[in-house]
Structure formats: structure tokens, C-alpha cells
Amino acid sequence: MPKKSEFIHVNPLFARPGEDTLAPRYTLGAGQMLPETAYQVVHDETMLDGNARLNLATFVGTWMDDQASRLYSESFDKNMIDKDEYPQTAAIEEYCWKIIADLWHAPSPETTIGTSTIGSSEACMLGGLAFKRRWQHARRAAGLSTEKPNLVMSSAVQVCWEKFCNYWEVEPRYVPVTEEHPFFDGHELGKYVDENTIGVVAIMGVTYTGAYEPVAEIAAALDAIQEASGYDIPIHVDAASGGMVAPFLQPDLAWDFRVERVHSISTSAHKYGLVYPGLGWVVWRSPQMLPEDLIFTVSYLGGSMPTLALNFSRPGAQVLLQYYLFLRLGHDGYRAVQQASQDVAHYLAHGIEEIGPFELLGDGSDIPVFAWRLKDGHTDNWNLFHLSDRLRSRGWLVPAYPMPDDMSDVIVQRIVVRNGLSLDLASKLLDAIQEETAYLDKLESPMPVEGQHPGFTH
């Protein structure tokens, strides 16, 4: 097998007189390259990436309008942490999380606290840290040990929660999903919590299936546990996707600060917040839910401003894009955009169900995401990994992967409908799924399964 080249071969048509036609791939070149040549090399290498608009594996937004792109280019240089240099960007950050706090029914949006983050993973980490620190303070005040904290969550959580538990030495306690309980609903929750439980995580938009976990039911189970044991355990809602969908498509659903046990909520602005990556938000019910020793104070407009983040220097442009969208769309605009995505999800889900071999796991009625599996006994000649590969050959990224532990023998395939997937494009995808399914169903012998691996699930 040929060895991978250690050099980039520059087409003579790209290079200018006096330039080398070979550039080292893994070391810094000795000389300079003209910007036109460097641009062309990088531009051509990235042509090997997939088409973002056809990537139905990711939740991350891939399209914004021309005015947003213009605003983005005008604010590339703004550093979110430098609030003295960019005080108005700092003020706009505060506008945004107060808008979000109001959207999530915080008791007093004007006086609560929140922050922007690089993404919802950082936002989740901050929510988890607040849980751990509050638990430590309460235990120390009572003269009790602060060893062995634990966090309870579904086995279907996003990997950032595994990272949180690993990095900050918290025991993860996973409630398994099963055929009878396909998402975390508070069932037998008492088996997982104890005096060392710092909190419980509920997910609004499970990445595997798109389903909402019933926050109010989980809170009711914790109420019963508190009555029986005295354990007062808070909830963090990981609303990476649903936090910017539910307020517009399911406004009467009580999942947010209307549920008193919810202490904090996080979301990804670069998912259904409709902003380019990376931006997240986290908001607490009240300042009392965020321990003061996690907050740093910085100079701001002649006064001081609280700040908290794992990252220090980070881009401010995405914060401005979020405010642009809040101004541009308003409540009605967000509802229209999310409804359009949900309509496409319903169209695709029911179209796929009608093909015949597939059983739906939801139809996009929560967030515009749904999954399906092969019906038992349909075929031994192919599986959903084969269908995923066939679709990839046509440009569509539609991942296949196993469900989490206790359902890991169930292979599903998933579509994430985002702003930018039109009904017209969706009809072409449905045609492709029908055609490739028909091709696979005509096979007279099994397809090889060696080398199959899960697609991107998060």
C-alpha cells in the first residue's frame, strides 16, 4: 500500500513564479507561499468534506442568511471575554440570556443569571459544577463528608455528561433505556439516588430518537423521594435542542422553570437557536442557584459584571448573531421556522414508514428529529448500516448506530431536520431511501458486515 505523502503537491497552475510546487504536510515550510496559492490548496482540500446541507447526522446549523453572514464578518475580531474593550457586545450577551430566561419562564428574568458558552457542552458543565458546589457547601455546613458525589441521568445522555463526570470526579449513575421505558421517565428513580446525589439530568430532545424526557414526571418522582427520604435533589434540563423548539411548538408543555425542581437549563444556540457554531446558553432559576464562588467579577462600563465560563477568550460574533435572530424573527418567526422543520420531519417519517420494512421510533413531533429500525424478520440480507452506506454514496449522510446499553442490540437510523432542508430536498431524500431500499430488498444473498461502525449520533 503506498505511503501517505509527507508533502502537498501544488499544481503549477496554482503556484506563482518563484514558489515551490511541494509544501511539507506535517512541518512548517521554510519559505512563504502567496495567499492565493495557500487559499487554493486549503479550498481544494476541504472539497473532500461532505455537503453540509445534505448532512442529516448533525444537529448543528449549517445555514444563515446574507445579513447574518455580513454581521459575522464584521465581528470576527470581537473577544467575548474582553468586556472592557467590547462593552456593547457584553451588554448584548446579557440581553440574550434574559430573553431566553423569559422564554423559559424564569420567575424573575430581570434578576436571574445566565451566560453564553462555546456550546451546550460547556453550558452543561457549568450546570453540573453548580450542582456539585451547592452540594459540597450544604454537606460541609452539616458537617458531612463531600466524598463520592454522584449524578443521575439516562443512559442516552450526550457524551458531554460523561466528560463532566470524568473531569470533575463525579460518579455517573445511568438509568437504562428499555423497550418498556425508551426514555428516562422517573421509573424506579429511587434505586439510583441517595444523599450523595448532586442532581438529576433530564433531556429535552434525546439525540438517539429526538424524544423529550418528561421533566414534570421526573420532578414528581423526586418529590416522592424527598417526602420519603428527605433528599432534596435538583434537576438540570439539558435542552440542547428542545430549549429552542418547545417554547414555540409546544408552549403549554411544562418542562422549564415552571417546574420548581428545575434549577438550571442549557441549550445549543447553534442547533435550533439557528446560529452558526459554536454558541450555547445556560440560565439558572435565580442567582441563589449559582454558588458565588463560581462567579468572577470583571470591570464593565465603569462598574463590575459577573462572569463565569470554562473558556476565557472566545468569539463574540455568535452572540451578536443570536441577538440578530431574536430581533429579526421574534416569537412568530421562530415558531414559523421550527414548524417548517417539523412539517418536513413529519413528511419524511410517514413517507419512510410507508416504504414497508421500517418501524418508526417517533415521527418528529417533539424536536424535528426521528429514528427508525428494521422490522423484526424483514431480512437477513442487509441492515441499516448498508442503507446508510448506499445513501452516503449519493451524498446523503443519514447515520445508523446502536441504541444505548440495555437496548444496544437495536440498530436505528436517524434524520435531523434543520432549517435549510426544504420539502423539495426532503422529497429527493425520500426517493433515494425508497430506491436504495428496493435495491437492497432484491439481493439474493447477504451483504458483508465486516468493518461496519456506528455513524455520528450526537
From TrEMBL:
Q: Which GO terms describe its cellular component?
A: cytosol
Q: Which Pfam families match?
A: Pyridoxal_deC
State the EC number(s): 4.1.1.15
Key word Transmembrane helix present? no
Task: List, in alphabetical order, the GO biological process terms annotated in this UniProt record.
Answer: L-glutamate catabolic process
UniProt xrefs under NCBIfam families: Glu-decarb-GAD
Name of the featured protein: Glutamate decarboxylase
* Organism name: Compostimonas suwonensis
What lineage, starting at the top, does this entry show? Answer: Bacteria, Bacillati, Actinomycetota, Actinomycetes, Micrococcales
